[in-house]
Structures are given as structure tokens and as C-alpha cells.
Write a structure and sequence with these properties.
single chain, alpha+beta, about 50% helix, about 20% strand, elongated
């Protein structure tokens, strides 16, 4: 739920409470039944307003996300396995230009391993960048482009929402990301 919508719901609830207070100010203590009836009406209005309000999702910076946070939204850790038969089948379906891109990627990764000390995390970024560039080339078409934005900061208000498909639990992620990949329509007016 957007912050604007939540503010609107809060304002409606506050107005409802203010109206209740005004109604109750004019009633004598002896008119107890009337007072209870008015309170019941206002409580019912508040209940209906708050039904539309959704619990504010938890917001966590990327670097602070725990395995428990990810489990709450249905993300589980699994091993990435490549089945040679399926990889070969995919390779057979590639166009000639895609095959050339993959061959270039393979050669580039070999060079990286030959010349870069891979003991540090930052060194692995060279491999990730090579893979992202190749994927961007493969996914780009005449009408669709891919852009890679390194070192992006995502503010809390613009966070990325991950939602559990069954429970509906939401987690908003914000902070710094190493890479953001964006797909866009490749129209000359946009460039």
C-alpha cells in the first residue's frame, strides 16, 4: 500500500474520531443509551476504514536480510545444478550470433581466471559483469534493450517488494545493490 493511501486512511480515521468526540460532547451523561448508539456507529465506521488499511510491510536493507527474512517470503536456498544434456540441448537451439557471444564469454572468463586473484569477493564481480554483459547482448533485440546500472542505491521509499505467494507476507528491501538490470522498449524517442 502506498504511503499516500495510508496517510489518507489515517486522516479518515482521525476525522471519524473527531466527529465522535464532537457528537459525545453534546450529550448529557443521562442519555446513556444514545451515547452507546453513537459510539457503536463510530466504531463501526472506524472498523470499516481500517479494514482497508494494510499492515505496513517490514523494510530491511539488503545487507541486513537474514535467511529467516527470506524464508518468510518463500525464498529458499538451493544448489544450482547444470545438467549437461539440457545445456547441450539449449546450445543446439542458439543462433549463430548467440553461439559467438557464448564463445566470447567463455574466452573472457578464462582470461579472468588466468589473470585475476579470485580470493576476494570483489574479484568475482569481474565474472558477474562479463555474464551480465553477455546476457544483455543476447536479450537485446530491435525493439527491446537492456541496460545495466552498477552500484545502485535504492531508498526505503522506493524499495523492492518481495511477497510470499501464499501467506501474503511482504518484505521491502532497500539499500545498495551491486547491479540493477533494466529492460526497456527500444524506441528512438526514448534515447
Amino acid at each position: 500500500m502506498s504511503e499516500h493511501l495510508q496517510d489518507s486512511l489515517r486522516l479518515r480515521a482521525l476525522n471519524c474520531l473527531k466527529a465522535l468526540q464532537e457528537d459525545l460532547d453534546g450529550i448529557e451523561e443521562t442519555e446513556e443509551d444514545l451515547k452507546l448508539h453513537i459510539i457503536s456507529d463510530h466504531v463501526l465506521m472506524l472498523k470499516n476504514i481500517l479494514k482497508g488499511a494494510k499492515k505496513v510491510p517490514e523494510s530491511v536493507p539488503f545487507k541486513m536480510v537474514t535467511e529467516e527474512d527470506l524464508e518468510k517470503v518463500g525464498v529458499t536456498r538451493k544448489q544450482l545444478d547444470f545438467e549437461p544434456v539440457k545445456v547441450t540441448k539449449l546450445m543446439d537451439a542458439l543462433s549463430e550470433s548467440a553461439e559467438n557471444e557464448i564463445a566470447d564469454l567463455h574466452a573472457q572468463i578464462k582470461k579472468i581466471y588466468a589473470h585475476v586473484n579470485m580470493k576476494y569477493e570483489s574479484c568475482s564481480h569481474m565474472i558477474i559483469e562479463a555474464i551480465l554483459l553477455t546476457l544483455a547482448e543476447l536479450a537485446s533485440t530491435q525493439t527491446r534493450g537492456i541496460v545495466i546500472l552498477p552500484e545502485m542505491k535504492i531508498t526505503q521509499g522506493d524499495g523492492v517488494c518481495i511477497s510470499h505467494p501464499v501467506s501474503g507476507y511482504e518484505l521491502w528491501l532497500s539499500g545498495n545493490v551491486d547491479y540493477m538490470v533494466i529492460e526497456y522498449q527500444d524506441v528512438k524517442d526514448y534515447r
